[in-house]
Fold this protein.
Amino acid sequence: MPTASTPCSPLPNQPTRRSFLRLAGLAATLPVLSEGHLAWASMRESGIAPALDPTKAVMINANENPLGPCAAAIAAINRSAHFGGRYDPNGDYEEMFTVFPKVLDVPKNYVKVYAGSSDPLQFAVLAYTSKDKPYVTADPSYEAGMVAAKSGGAAVIKVPLTPTHAHDVKAMVAASPNAGLLYICNPNNPTGTLTPKADILWALQNKPKGSILLIDEAYIHFAGVPDSLDLVRAHQDVIVLRTFSKVYGMAGIRCGAAIGRPDLLARLDAYGQNPLPITGLTAAVASLKDTELVPTRRKIVADTRNDTFAWLKEKGYKFIPSVSNCFMIDTDKPGKQVIAAMAAKNVFIGRTWPIWPNSVRITVGTPAEMAAFKTAFAEVMSA
Ligand code: PLP
């Protein structure tokens, strides 16, 4: 069983504590950061060595999907792996560009596919922010864009969420007349809360001239609400990010996309584009063809989340109701202490955010994982 002192080696490209802290300041070079990097770096910072084997530990720290890829995606990966010596021998790239834009209901040239959404997130931030064009984000929110903006020399302006945990779009727009990019994570990571469509429209109509809205819909499938692709179809100054890492369970397989007007997307090209893994492409296409996947998984996650919320309420713990696969609990004591105590019980929960040091993020795991979470959390909180 892993303990707080179990040695473990970093995953490839994973920042150590020192390198993460350097990244969070002003980095000279910038590896693309993902939730996995941020989750692991935060654990290292607290002196916790996460278990490497998710079958032996409860890993609800990185907003992963324990269901993994769907059966059709796994079959497609198995077929595709045999052809892995070649770049694109079966036309997977072409098929993705036939299937995905249709599902999104946008023209083909409004979609750019990447190995996950971390690349286009970072590239969009680097393309649209600079020394004179600040990056505006909610607080707390997903930090990867903020780190990219700092590395490009842009000022980062953090605007606290509203009392209902939506993005405070009026304050975000007012934050800088020169802003280059306003980042709207909907539903938000870490709170799992939504920003109303009317607010997003207001931000679009009132944002600084020349800026864009980067609307990160990594978790939109869990919420079952209208997305922002209508704004893309209306050729607005909006780039929407999508990923196959969350509801589709492909975080380790990698596929994601930026969706927007071709002239907006063209500015991301300056930062390069690797060939895509054929396993990721074929698994994404297979997942998109499984029309039951999204509603089925949305219900599975909602049922487990709502069961956990009922338990938290019954025990009197404070939490923020979420529509996503993660949520925040106010622990009334330093969140980092709670994280360390939970890790000692082999339950690895998510990080804290500086604005809310007494809150921790929990990812919705399987019912068995959440049962283990409840037992450990009750013990830690009553200690
Ligand atoms: N955006 C948000 C809000 C996330 O939480 C994450 C990862 O958790 C990402 C983007 C990047 O994910 P990926 O690169 O796996 O698509």
Remarks:
- Residues 34-35, 63, 116-118, 121, 142, 185, 189, 216, 218, 243, 245, 251, 256 surround pyridoxal-5'-phosphate (CB under 6 Å).
- The first helix runs from residue 17 to 24.
- The longest strand covers residues 238-243.
